[in-house]
Amino acid sequence: HLAETMRAFALALGIAVVVGVGLGFCLGMSRLAGEVGEPLLVSFYSLPKITLYPIVLLIFGIGMPSKIAFGALHGIMPIAIFTLGALRNLPPVLGRTSRALRLSRWQSAWTVLLPAARPEIFTGLRLGFSLTLIGTLLGEMFASQRGIGFLLMQAIGLHDTDLIMALTLLIVAFAITASMALLAVDKRLRHGAA
Description:
Layout: H1 2-28, H2 31-46, H3 53-60, H4 64-88, H5 92-100, H6 105-142, H7 148-157, H8 161-193
């Protein structure tokens, strides 16, 4: 069950990071796209994702794909919002320097903007990490035959307090360990940027 959850979570997190950072960069590179896209991102982010779960099940079916999709759905928006905010908060001199050096949009994004915005983007990744974990576990709780979330719902149905406490402790220990590691990396990035 643990291996199933970790596999689903790792895939969901990978998708959330790639899509979230990519979406944030696409919106952040264009002022007009950012002004139009940000309210849409924020309104979608405020929507309770559990209301979308029947649609996710309808599209992906029961099993691993729906858990991955539901986990990624939770993580994409905060990562995109933080990436967009990070690009907006960069000093304008970086854009002018990129144009003076005649860098293409992609060269500018990769060599100038991404390194400068990395600490703020990583803060979004930390939040996206937590929400992706929650989304993956929720996906397992409602429509899955394997995983920690499924095991937790089964234990709740059987009133197995020992198993409920053991699974809760396992999830909390993983979340705290991962959060401390990500916080340490975040502090290092911010210290290096200062």
